[in-house]
């Protein structure tokens, strides 16, 4: 696995939520009520014992605090930074009921896990070798969480990743004011330090190695496929320079130095979290005028409202109830988006045609699904482009498990981490009891 | 406007708030600043043969980010020349004739007592306080708590002081005894006009766990010190009340121990203190805390229609009783206000692990408000104590149909007790 370049556009960003100093962390930790059967734990997809890790910060047991986090979620360091805590743990803090500011769980989790990284604390060893081997397709959070858990249980693991770097969207997609690519790579390296996880980057499954070959080499397969490229508006001019998928743009910003000196006006098409991220990132990169174009009303956008509020404070503009109907161009150069207003029933309103001028148009209207990659595998069911799994993460094909964005259509890192661990435990059961004896 | 004037054994001050004999009352400049801030009196840092101190001298109990919930010191009595102290006391008294200045004293021989008492009276001071309480350093030299722990010695030295003094004499008692009452009675028998209590409690405040030395650390060693601060207040309240309710004990009390605000002071006064002395909270926050103490006491007195301080001194003493005189048939159960409950379930876990397992999760797992099984609730208060929401859990009296009956009445065969709850 390669590291990321030092020359990256994202390095201009500061943390939106700065790290706590030890003094700040202690004051906050001491406010925690240490609830019984705490709602914040119930709100966490990985069920981290939040009151316990916070209490350990207050008592100067930071090593134990970080372990409490990692025991449930080996990606606890990145989740501390990228989780939408406002709608998860922090949103369910009982202090909200009392009109008291809720405990800043994400920042406290970052405090403990950053300390663990800074001090190079390690907690886990690989289990005794079981002689079983698992292929993990995709090197994102779901596969990494699964691989780590499988190694603790003694199974050999091989991660296949098409990119040169691991970490998936944690490395290529997280808003840089939350976490930068190099930090994600550090987390991957820390996770891999358990040993015995073979990493094969630059390998496309099934093009380079097909599933039959995987089944020959391994006793079980975990599908952590993630999502595919951005969905592109099928309008004339879509191929022009200056029209780009938002996820692709973000990946470029996170891994390379982008040349944006001629960009004055940006339109971001969409109303989800990727759209809001792209808006905030374009503003942070210094682009003078950044406008979100969304076909619905502000209150109906699917992106988190706390994120959009922050975007507005940073200067984001918006065109609500506005639908792109074509790209405007001049001499092979993009000049904007032809739009029409929409009514509350999402019907185009005649006579409202107008052009929003722009030099860069970022499309954040969704990502393609990758379930087609497993189309030829008997027993695996797909639905709406997603791989269908049971409550343990098992597909309909024996020995095949899945998790992360390829089963949920695109959720949070913490959901992928939870999926990966869940599947690993089920795979362990499968490998030791039911199958995998002669793959 | 209620009258806050305090009279403790003839020592009169504009309010009952005195600086205790300690670092905040170490010098004239300090005491004058304290009086300007509003303090009604000051007990000067103990005079005797000037000593030499060590560094460091203080340690603190830290709890949830608060430094100084409990506090201790290994400082000794004044390290300043006696002449300087007497000159400054004289100046203070001249400048602040209406404020109370009490000179704390600790010497060994009868001759020394005679001399230092005379010089103290010459300053114009309003009273003397005999330091029979210091539990560290001085007691190793046969003074302080070494005196206070021996009723006979206490009584004898008190009688010397009374022989030489024309101004009121208070005896400052040590809490480092099994029962405070004989020691208060000894001071009274020696002629003391009043007592002040408690002095500090013999303690080790903590241990430096990386260097394997107790705190406060003096190079590679430490020693036991005197414990004080908010954490000792319950001990002090008990000792004051134990004397106040004893019919043999008839002299006034100046209450000391963990007073941090007006409410603490009110508690001491209700349990029999005519004045209260404060040290630790001033050391931690400064003289300015007295503004709130005065205001808080005034509005408390107004609220309860006390016109003068004496009206409230000892008001809670009659209700301090032997356990055997408590009404066993008085029954309360916890009630949770579902509208106020925030669902932290601290009451539930406390009841389950620390009390009588009568608070349960609601049948509907989504409901966070716990349910009290009143048939099992013993009315212990633990849930109410751990609840973070004001007035969310109340202890409500239950009419069980039983007439009041105490344990003593039960033993004497004159009281019928209700059936026990939660004992199975």
Describe the 3D structure:
The complex is a heterodimer of chains A (439) and B (424). Chain A is α/β, with parallel strands linked by helices and 439 residues long. Chain A has 3 domains: 16-118, Alpha-helical ferredoxin (Fumarate Reductase Iron-sulfur Protein, Chain B, domain 2, Orthogonal Bundle), CATH 1.10.1060.10; 133-228 and 368-434, FAD/NAD(P)-binding domain (3-Layer(bba) Sandwich); 243-363, FAD/NAD(P)-binding domain. Chain A has 16 helices and 15 strands. In chain A, strands 3-2-1-4-15 form a 5-stranded parallel β-sheet, sandwiched between helices. In chain A, helix 4 (62-72) crosses helix 7 (105-118) and helix 12 packs across helix 13. Chain A is globular. Chain A starts with 21 loop residues before the first helix and ends in a 5-residue tail after the last helix. With 424 residues, chain B is an alpha/beta fold. Chain B folds into 2 domains: 6-319, TIM Barrel, CATH 3.20.20; 326-411, Alpha-Beta Plaits (2-Layer Sandwich), CATH 3.30.70. Chain B has 13 helices and 20 strands. Chain B has helices at 28-37, 82-95, 110-122, 145-148, 151-164, 181-189, 233-244, 262-270, 280-285, 290-303, 346-354, 382-386, 407-411; strands spanning 6-8, 11-13, 17-19, 41-47, 58-63, 66-73, 100-105, 127-131, 169-172, 194-197, 201-203, 206-208, 213-215, 225-228, 253-256, 273-278, 331-336, 359-360, 371-372, 393-398. In chain B, the strands form 6 sheets. Chain B has an 8-stranded parallel beta barrel with strand order 3-4-7-8-9-10-15-16, surrounded by 8 helices. A 4-stranded antiparallel β-sheet of chain B has the order 5-6-14-11, with no helix packed on it. A two-stranded antiparallel ribbon of chain B has the order 1-2. In chain B, a hairpin with a 4-residue loop joins strand 12 and strand 13. In chain B, helix 3 packs across helix 5 (151-164), helix 5 (151-164) packs parallel to helix 6 and helix 8 crosses helix 10 (290-303). Chain B is globular, with a radius of gyration of 24 Å. The mean pLDDT of chain B is 96. The interface between A and B is medium-sized, with 15 and 13 residues.
